[in-house]
Structure formats: C-alpha cells, structure tokens
Design brief:
This protein is an alpha+beta fold. The protein has helices at about 25-30, 35-40, 50-65, 115-125, 145-150, 190-195, 195-200, and strands at about 10, 15-20, 70-75, 80-90, 95-105, 135-140, 155-170, 175-185, 205-210. The chain contains seven helices and nine strands.
Length: about 210
C-alpha cells in the first residue's frame, strides 16, 4: 500500500499548487511574518529567511517522503506569484484521512484563493488518491478560516475545547500565547459530489504527478 503522496502539480483556471521552490523563499518569509499568520499559526516569530529556507529545503520535502502529508505552494497561474500554501498533515493511510491547514498571503486575501485551493486538493485527494476524509481545524476566533471551510462545503462536527495555542498582540507590540478552542470541520467525497456548481465556478482543470 502506498504511504506517501506523489510529487504533484494541481491546476485550476487561476492557480497552480506545486512543491515549493528556492525562488519562493523571500515571499514565503514575508507571508509568514504577517500579523494574521502570526496570530493563528505556530510558526516561529519573527520568521526569518533562514526559517523559510529550512522549511522549503528540508521540512516540506521530508513531510512528503516520510508519509506524514504534503506541502503545496499556491501560486497564481498568470503571474506565478506565491499567494499561499496548503499543508496536508497528520495523514492516516489506514483510514485514508488527512488534515488540511492553509495560509493565505496578505497581498492575496479576498480573492477566494484559500477556498479554491482546499477544493482543488480535496478533489485530487478523493478522486486520484482514493481518500475518504479531509479535516480542517479552525481557531474559534479565526473567522476568515471558518468562512473558507463553509464555502468549501465542509461540515462542522463540533468543538475541540482548549485544543490550540494562538497568539495575541499586546499594547507594547509583543505577542503572547493564549489558549483557544478549535472548530472541527470535515469534507467527504459525497460532499464534493454535491458541490458540482461550486467546483465548476472555480474552474478545476487538472493535476499532474511529477514523480
């Protein structure tokens, strides 16, 4: 049984989801230093160029090769500009289930890219990789991520109490940890089958295995 994801490129009319490249390092470091990213992720802060280099050169490739998931850079089809990332993690190959975590660059918000990326990855997972479940976990105060889950057609299954540590900025500009609940969402293959119009609106086209 296959226990690693293939090296893949997933395309829509507007986006290409692919493995990270060396040229993505400056934009990725900038994206990870955005205030919203700092607040809702566990990434180091401040996020340095060295952090970005280590993630792109070592951590992301190891995630796929080790079977834990896959890290995809989200880029605009026309400009090739980095606009976000989708990270599949905590993958269970026996139950064919995995969890998606998304970050959208501040210069690309409001375009629907996160929802488009989640649906493109879900389509690839369910139809090509024969997965049966995709989870999303959103912090209770992260309304933007909750909207992404809702627009993708995910079903809210409940609350994981005090399950995450977010960060809040204090009056002096520093960041401090705070515990928060997580909302658990799921997408199943039949949820996508019922969302044909939503998928068509985003213009899904193809995915290509590169290795």
């Amino acid at each position: 049984m296959t226990t690693t994801f293939p090296d893949v490129s997933i395309s829509t009319d507007r986006l290409v989801l692919r493995a990270f490249e060396e040229g993505d390092i400056p934009a990725y470091a900038e994206m990870m230093n955005d205030e919203q990213t700092i607040a809702w992720t566990s990434a180091p802060h401040p996020y340095t160029t060295a952090d970005a280099e280590y993630w792109i050169r070592r951590i992301a490739p190891a995630e796929r090769l080790g079977g834990g998931g896959i890290v995809l850079a989200v880029t605009e089809f026309l400009t090739q500009r980095l606009v976000g990332t989708v990270h599949l993690r905590n993958t269970n190959w026996h139950t064919r289930a995995t969890e998606a975590a998304c970050v959208t660059a501040p210069w690309a918000r409001g375009e629907g890219y996160a929802t488009e990326s989640v649906l493109a990855v879900a389509k690839w997972l369910f139809r090509d990789q024969k997965f049966e479940r995709l989870e999303l976990r959103t912090a209770a105060g992260n309304t933007a991520s909750q909207q992404v889950a809702q627009k993708a057609g995910a079903i809210s299954e409940g609350v994981l109490r005090s399950a995450w540590i977010a960060r809040v900025q204090t009056e002096d500009g520093t960041w401090t940890d705070t515990r928060t609940d997580l909302i658990l969402w799921s997408l199943l293959p039949e949820d996508l089958e019922g969302g044909t119009e939503r998928m068509a609106r985003f213009g899904y086209s193809s995915f290509t295995e590169l290795a």
